[in-house]
Amino acid sequence: MSSHIRLAPVTSKDIPHLGYISAIALAPNPLWRFIFQHGTDLDLSIQSSRARYQNDYANPTTRFMKAIDGTTGEIVGFITWTMVEKQQEEQAWRFDPPMNEDYNKAVFGSLQTRRVRSMWGKKYIHCNILAVSPERQRQGIGELLMQHLVSVADKEQLETYLNSQMVAHKLYLRLGWRDVDFLDTDLSKWGDDQGLGIHRIAQMLRLPRPLREGAD
């Protein structure tokens, strides 16, 4: 990883670019091909991501951290997480047109339901998304962002929950997460004409490491 990468809190002015980063980073993911009613649409994905992050940024329990190339000043990745108080009922995610409501409920609605059921009654951290610009992936930036979240979780002595694409699964295992469930989606049911088959998402939990005596 470049030694010029540094982390900093996200500002409201960063939100449009974060929406762009996440949309292009997720575009190759087979799951994203069916989110919208008429197939893949990068412009809609960018707009949807920006709207979501604007809402999340206004939420006092949600935090953002960005990775910046210290040479160019460019944001090259980010992570966002929510500090969930002892679990209460969550408002179910809405998937209004042009989103494919049935598909999104089957995938992302199911992930939300499983998380709420698994973490009911606990105070914990939910990692919402980790995204790195495609041209800067495999340079350790994602791990640097995730290590920041790990330090927050250990300091707060909170469990951390996330949904992992299998391409990142080994990273999370190495950083202390363990599998608690899997969601397998048969993409052939949603118009897959490229033989993508079953797509698996791992739902993972990390326990905080005990604080050393005298640590702040």
Spatial arrangement of strands, main beta sheet = 1-2-3-4-5-7-6
What's the pLDDT, averaged over the residues?
A: 92
Provide the structure class: alpha+beta
Order of H and E elements:
EHHEEHEHEHEE
- The number of E-state strands comes to 7
Query: What is the radius of gyration?
Result: 17 Å
Separation of the first and last Cα atoms: 29 Å
Number of helical segments with 4 or more residues: 5
Point out poorly predicted stretches. Answer: none
What does this structure look like?
- The structure is a single chain.
- Strand 2 and strand 3 form a beta hairpin.
- The protein is globular, with a radius of gyration of 17 Å.
- The longest helix has 19 residues.
- The chain has a seven-stranded mixed β-sheet with strand order 1-2-3-4-5-7-6, sandwiched between helices.
- The mean pLDDT is 92.
- It is 32% helix and 27% strand.
- By secondary structure, the protein is α+β, with helices and mostly antiparallel strands.
- 24% of the residues are buried.
List the helices and strands and how they pair.
Blueprint: E1 5-9, H1 15-26, H2 42-57, E2 62-69, E3 75-84, H3 101-119, E4 124-132, H4 141-156, E5 159-165, H5 169-174, E6 177-186, E7 198-206
Parallel strand pairs: 4-5
Antiparallel strand pairs: 1-2, 2-3, 3-4, 5-7, 6-7
Helix pairs in contact: 1-2
